[in-house]
Amino acid sequence: MNSYRFLLSALIFSQFTLQAQDGPALYQTYCSACHGAKGEGGAAGAAPPLANSLWAQGDPARMINVVLNGLMGPIEVAGKEYNLVMPPQGAVLKDEQLAAILTHIRTFGNGGGEVKAEQVAALRTKYADREAYWKTDELLKEYPLPVPPGAIRKLVRKYYALPKSQKTLPDFSILEPNATSRQTSGLISLEGYSDRDHFALVWEGELKIRREGQFSFTLDSDDISALYIDDKKVVEVPGLGGMGRAKTAKATLHPGLVKIRVEYLEYTGFTGMAASWAGPGISGTQSLSSTKVVNKKKRRIEPIELKPEGSRAVHYRNFIAGTGNRSFSVGYPGGINLVFNQENCGLELLWRGRFFDAGPRWNGRGTVRSLPLSGQVYHLQKGSPYPGQKFSFKGMELDENAYPTFHYLVGDLTVRDRPQPEEKGMKRILSIESEGDSELVFVPLSRTVPGLSFEGHELTVREDGSYLLPLRQGANSFTFYYGIQ
Amino acid sequence: MNQFSPLFLFTLLLLGAVSAWANKFNNQPLDPRMSKYYLREEIPMPKDVVFEPGSIALLPDQRIAVGTRRGEVWICEGAYGEDLSKVTWTPYFKGLHEPLGMYWQDGALYYTDREQFGRLVDRNGDDRPDWVETISAPWGLTGNYHEYAFGTTPDPQGNIFVTLCLTGSFNAQAQWRGWVMKIAADGTATPYASGVRSPGGIGYDAEGNLYYTDNQGVWNGGKGAYTRAGSASSAVSTRGCRAIAHRGHSRPYRRKIWALCRAGVRG
């Protein structure tokens, strides 16, 4: 019993400490597991950072609401998309506690400033009847993100109407702009022109370089664009086409002011223009345009290739593409592999090649089904291998090399299903215990598979591709052979 | 009680190792208050193995089986010894699907993983299982990463209880997601309680009450509900949550369920 008293006292102790209005400690308890000890984000990149986040800056009402009533994604933070549910904590956290946590979060490069318990209380009352999580759009409509001052100083935009034949950036030095305007936002924007065709825009301004070093510039446009620093072309998006063709290039820059010039051509249809930069003295990636560059690159996940060890087969139990949700995969020495689907007692996938990369399942969050790593994968079953019969999977026997023999019941019959890899393919031996004389319909291959030769030893295949297995009382054995080219 | 104590102690030890790792990660010193309350010793883990333990079972002869997220089972020897540098780890089996709940009984290692309640049996005595048995697999799966299954040790009648996480955050897109299933020793499964979201653990207290913890509140306000092992009808929280599950609603009833769950927890 002592152990339990022990545990109880620990629980009481922890309850006690959590009631203190200690922002950092409360943050540690309620937030840091997902958002990181210093708000750097966490959960393997799934939870957004709170540090240097526009979401945590400006009017605290936005954050108070998120914590009180929860938020459903997707949301964008610092140019990255996140799609997790932020669970509501309003029932757990008192006004003072919530205020203390948010005050602490505002010290993570979010401009500081105390969040008061009264502010929390007011919003708690205002949304007392709220039963749904906030949706991103709904929240930002009510509580928009603060607008950061644009990076480009003295920004001027020039507009050029172009002939319909113009499909490349023109030589602007011989053209007169049809309109010129100052852009006080400091951001490249198509505002006022986004529904036009056959035109060009040129933006010119200055960027302040605080520290020497390499800067990267990213550009994306519909259609063509090019970015110049001090009259030297750094990066371009050539050719007519839509957004999503972002290009990045680097330039070494020295402290002081540099000239930035962005040229843009729209042919017809949709328009779009996005630019960003990153480098010394800039926190993360800073957008140079009102539309943000969408980074389509995915996080690289370290692969974990599974291979047989010596004479032993390798096993993998996970969600595999092209088969049921309860399956057992075996990679045999010699490079033949199979997936046995426990849900229909069928030998479902067969291939020669590399086995599996478990990386996306084990190093990632596990949102994609595993695919065989290489080779032509043969799908053997389409329906049930024992049509019209009830079956249940019982288990598997493993020999000294970890080769499995699958055991299952078909009706009243006990079946042992033993795949045995051979040089040119997979032998499959069915051993069936029968209490009397009968027969069993078996479909070892539900359709013709190109590249796979198949025979049932001493048995005749019927017109529909099935085999009629004649059973005598006692032990019966049938051999099939899948030849893999 | 005696049978629980070593497990309790070992859990502490292992938690210690994990929290040491977490603290290294966060670059913060351990809270010195811990040593005041807990005996804490770090058991050396196998080198170059990503362990991510999710299950622990105590075996005869002071051996301990640990299941990992990658579906491996390792056997630890020497964890009870004076000199922990002599601890050895041996791979026992590879090929479960995220086991979250294991126990040893009558010469077999029983496990609950995403796909089934089953057992590993070493019939030829070579210290590796040669029979991997599926005892029961009554729940549905869509392949969604969120559909975990946590299993208990057996109650006095030989039943285990399995909590089944939802498909994603809010929905059950396969059979029995969001439920607790009772599975008898012969594999017969009975739906036992509903309303769980993403339970992170399930276990008994000394009097046989069954508790689970939930990681976020959708139906039950984020607190573990209790239900009495062996008598589903006595659990107030169970009835309340089940009504919600059937209607397919979640949020609008959260407060009511919270109240019901609180009423269900005995003072």
Describe the protein.
The complex is a heterodimer of chains A (about 475) and B (about 270). Chain A is an alpha+beta fold and about 475 residues long. Chain A has eight helices and 30 strands. In chain A, the strands form eight sheets. A six-stranded antiparallel beta sheet of chain A has the order 7-6-8-13-10-11, with no helix packed on it. In chain A, helix 2 crosses helix 5 (about 95-105). Chain A is elongated and about 95 Å long. Chain B has a domain at about 140-265: Thrombin, subunit H (Beta Barrel). Chain B contains four helices and 15 strands. Chain B has helices at about 5-25, 35, 235-245, 255-265, and strands at about 55-60, 65-70, 70-75, 90-95, 100-105, 110, 115-120, 130-135, 150, 160-165, 180-185, 190-195, 200-205, 210-215, 225-230. A four-stranded antiparallel beta sheet of chain B has the order 1-2-3-4, covered by helices on one side. In chain B, helix 3 runs antiparallel to helix 4. Classes of the chains: A alpha+beta (about 475), B alpha+beta (about 270). The interface of A and B includes residues 132, 315, 393 and 400 of A.
Question: Top keywords for this entry?
Answer:
heterodimer, A: 485 residues, alpha+beta, Cytochrome Bc1 Complex, Chain D, domain 2, Jelly Rolls, 3 domains, six-stranded antiparallel β-sheet, 8 helices, 30 strands, 36% strand, B: 267 residues, Thrombin, subunit H, four-stranded antiparallel β-sheet, 30% strand
**Poorly predicted regions of chain B:** 1-27, 221-267
* Most extensive interface between two protein chains, with residue counts: A-B, 41 and 45 residues
Question: How is the biggest beta sheet of chain B arranged?
Answer: 4 strands, antiparallel
Coarse structural class of chain A: alpha+beta
On the 0 to 100 scale, the average pLDDT of chain B is 75
Radius of gyration of chain B: 19 Å
| Helix proportion range of chain A | 10-25%
CATH architecture of the domain at 138-267 in chain B: Beta Barrel
- N-to-C CA distance of chain B: 22 Å
Mean pLDDT of chain A: 88
**Count of the domains of chain A:** 3
Helix residue percentage of chain B:
10-25%
Given as residue ranges, the uncertain stretches of chain A (5+ residues, pLDDT < 50) are 1-20
Strand content of chain A: 35-45%
Output the helix-strand order of chain B.
Answer: HHEEEEEEEEEEEEEEEHH
The total beta strand count of chain A reads: 30
- Beta-strand content bin of chain B: 25-35%
Largest sheet of chain A: 6 strands, antiparallel
Count of DSSP helices of chain B? 4
